[in-house]
Specification:
By secondary structure, the protein is α/β, with parallel strands linked by helices. It contains 12 helices and 8 strands. The protein has an 8-stranded mixed sheet with strand order 1-2-4-3-5-6-7-8, sandwiched between helices. The longest helix has 15 residues. It is globular, with a radius of gyration of 19 Å. It starts with a helix and ends with a helix.
């Protein structure tokens, strides 16, 4: 390895904090918030090589790296990739790390719109970027990506929502209500003022979620073996390992953000969903998963039909929702191709 290459590798990722004083949420709560973000690569002189990646449910910037990792198809080393941790994910301001009076279950609802307003301030005021080549994200990152398109197409060249939606569907909301209820039912949860991890509720949460994150074909064809699991029951342990990294209140905080997602839920669009979709003038590739059980292809088809510059590309994978996470080789290759097509490389 040359000295130049070694230096580049050592400085590839930097962690940063950005504080916003007196941030006002959509629900009229005012508090100081902190956004933790990571940068990969450097901004060029004109600051026109930036790609924004927003995080998914229970994920941090480290998890999001799977989406843009170097592969045989893409190499984003000449770009500055900025990954912003969403609110409530245990890294940025969350129920678990916010002092009273907004600690634990008293942490306010942070909508998708709240997240994007805070992210926009970070991008423009802290980093001085007035144009983004691409905004992309998986799952809840897809929700935020749609919001960026609806609110800021004037400064975004392209968006890539992956296994996400512009508005949570009624069925998706019900799925989330089910996993939430499994946690709330644990008497040790104590309405969020638990003294130790509510183990029974967390176990139930991971068990219910595991049946939704993957497809029927994933279980029928024993595709979990491709992820290092040997039997169906191992999926529960896989999900536990993923969610046990987070505090229960943080999981519920992100879940509330997800359940309230709707790009038209603001004063600009006043609930007119079609108008909000039509406002997304940035070029878009919308990527649902063929076997995703809660962000359905039908919903994406409708969204694309109303967006003026959008294309639908369905990820043809049997991995369910996980197809869009970057963990699935089939999904990763399709995501890589979409990134190439959107940034022109």
């Amino acid at each position: 390895m040359t000295k130049k290459a070694k230096a580049k590798k050592e400085t590839q990722m930097k962690i940063n904090n950005y504080q916003i004083k007196d941030f006002q949420t959509q629900n009229q709560q005012t508090l100081d918030i902190n956004l933790v973000y990571a940068t990969y690569g450097e901004l060029n002189k004109n600051k026109d090589n930036a790609i924004l990646v927003v995080t998914s449910y229970s994920a941090t910037h480290e998890d999001a790296e799977d989406l843009f990792a170097k592969s045989d198809l893409i190499d984003l080393s000449d770009h500055c990739v900025i990954v912003i941790n969403m609110l409530s994910n245990s890294t940025s301001s969350s129920p678990s790390n916010t002092p009273a009076p907004f600690d634990g279950p008293r942490f306010p609802l942070m909508t998708v719109n709240d997240n994007v307003r805070a992210q926009h301030q970070l991008i423009t005021k802290e980093l001085g970027i007035d144009r983004l080549k691409l905004v992309m994200g998986f799952s809840m990152g897809g929700l935020q990506t749609f919001e960026w398109g609806a609110q800021h197409s004037d400064m975004v060249d392209a968006i890539l929502p992956i296994c996400g939606a512009a508005k949570v569907s009624n069925h998706n909301w019900m799925f989330l209500e089910g996993v939430k209820s499994s946690l709330l039912a644990d008497p040790n949860f104590k309405n969020g003022d638990y003294e130790s991890r509510p183990e029974v509720g967390m176990q139930a949460f991971a068990t219910v979620y595991g049946g939704w994150a993957f497809s029927q074909a994933f279980f029928r064809e024993e595709l979990y073996k491709e992820l290092g699991m040997e039997k169906t029951e191992d999926v529960i342990g896989f999900m536990k390992d993923y969610f046990y990294r987070r505090e229960a209140n943080d999981l519920l905080g992100m879940l509330a953000t997800w359940q309230s997602a709707d790009i038209s839920r603001n004063s600009r669009f006043d609930g007119d969903f079609d108008k909000a979709l039509q406002s997304i003038s940035a070029r878009a590739i919308v990527m649902p998963g063929k076997t995703d059980l809660y962000f359905r292809v039908t919903d994406s088809e409708y969204e694309v039909s109303k967006m003026p510059n959008a294309e639908l590309r369905v990820i043809d994978s049997k991995m369910g929702h996980v197809a869009g996470s970057g963990m699935d080789p089939v999904g990763k290759a399709e995501i890589d191709r979409a990134i190439i097509d959107l940034i022109g490389n």
